[in-house]
Amino acid sequence: MHTRSQRAWLLALATACGATPTGTADPVPRAGAGVDASSPIRPAGAPTGPDAALDGGGCAQLGARCTAWNVRGSCVVDGSGVRWAEELCAGGCYLGQCSPDRCSDECALGDVAASGTCRLYDLATKGAIAALPTKNLADRARDYEASLARLALRHGAVLDPMYTDATRTTVASFGGGGDASIWTGTALAAEALRLMATGSPDAEARLGEHVTTLHRAFRISGEPGFLARLVLPGANLLPIEVFDCKDSRWHCNVNYEGQAFHFMGDTSRDQYTGAVLGLALAYEATNDEGVRSAVRDDLVTLAFELMKVRAVPVRAELTVGGIPLSVEKTLTVENVILSPSEMVSGKVHLSGDVAGGAGEFRGMREFFPDLRVLVEPLTGLPVPIPRAASAMMLGAFFRSALRATSGVANRATEHQQLLSYYEHHAPGWLDTAAKWSLENTGCDDTYYPNHFAFIMAYLWARLEDDAVLGARIRNEVLHERLWDALKNDANVYFAYLWAGARQVAQTDPNVVSASAALATFPAGPRVREPRDVRLKYPAAASCSAPPMSTAALSPGDRPVTDFMWQRSPRVTFDPGDPRVVFPGVDFLVAYWAGRAHGLMADDRPGTCARWMP
Asked: By CB count within 10 A, which of 28, 100, 273, 562 is most buried?
């Protein structure tokens, strides 16, 4: 099996060598449920974590926040000093403040706990009301939040349940394990944006749980900076579709904090993009230093590994244009994450048939902004191969680590080292990023490279604090390259990220169009039903596998997939499989991006999910 990143590497090498490549297509309750509504979702008092006292510390570090739908917690100063105190709001609590007409969710609709059942509550009538997910987007988001936890989260990871038949009563297996980190990270991003938009105690609790899952995925291998695709407990009894200890990608019975785990490696670049997006936004959204400390450790470790210049032994065994090529060299490289446990005989190993796009890259995950550092020593050809998306990743990764160390006393030295490296390399990364262009056109329905490039450009633009660099990222990369190429794709997620990073108004025609498109995104569950809209849209005459349109489809007409915004918007037919249910993370992250950036209004104001008898 070859990953997306491996395939891209092989195709680049084929081009450098003059070959012509072909075939390039590349219910468990949520932890924390059952907390009494009168108690804080998180323990009151000082935060935990090794850096707790170093960026505020104590009570003051927590700031004001909603600890329940109608409870506000904050630090107060009295005769006994500074302490955490809570007050019961006359109305509700919203964005850390008591409000007469707003409240924030403290639980997931339908959850049952000792304190009752989680129901939708209306402040105006002071009673429970029915949720209307087919009518209201806010309730649609609540419904997807609840179903994500009950149906798709397993061992903290976002997975896709497949049932034994179309009645969907018995789960046969869980798919999506190979992409668990990117979608768990995206789910984390959704919760961070939700927390920014509403101050919801439920969002903060879920955010902490997702951070815990990703923190384990970053640490499980013991190899700094290495991110596992999926981590399972040693006693795993779930039928995970990809789980197989005989598969070299799986590392089984690994000891982590005194317990046995299994994890899936061979991790591609796209998994990192979702994880880092989620972690960086979580760091911004929460004041919980226990959570922030875990995020900081992961982001800083990743960045420092990418900074290292090291000698790496590489063995390449390739077929290029029908000609076997065997090369063994020690390369001096940086911007890589090494995985010694996945090396072959102590070497990074690359093998495969370049013309067919098939290959295997073991022992190293690279984020090279220019593949020349590999191609030239392996082939002798000094061919520049700029990789705009990798440059965006590096910019976003380092800006995330800089944000997580800013103002933290015991990380000051690391912060300065990161800043020095970043200031030296960022202008070059930006020059490369500004060369981005669509990789696939015509009948090629491959779309995912657009997704990971867009989210990294957004994150980089969001975090950049240098006025000149920030303007260039927003204008030359995000707007002139990515948005101009993709603005006609009815990609709501991209539209909100573009508008949010550039501070575009809610009334902008692109934003208005995106919000109208999101309204067509169906309410859950996201069953992979058959889809055929070939007669509804103008056909691309030459495209039959799969059938495609010349125009982007409305989200409501598109095939149901794992994550809509990384799939082609022009595919008009899918045979479906009604046994499969996707979790709806695509709706959640787009919706909350719109809300957090002030690009759409709450269509259920004055309501919240709360515990009721």
From this structure: 273
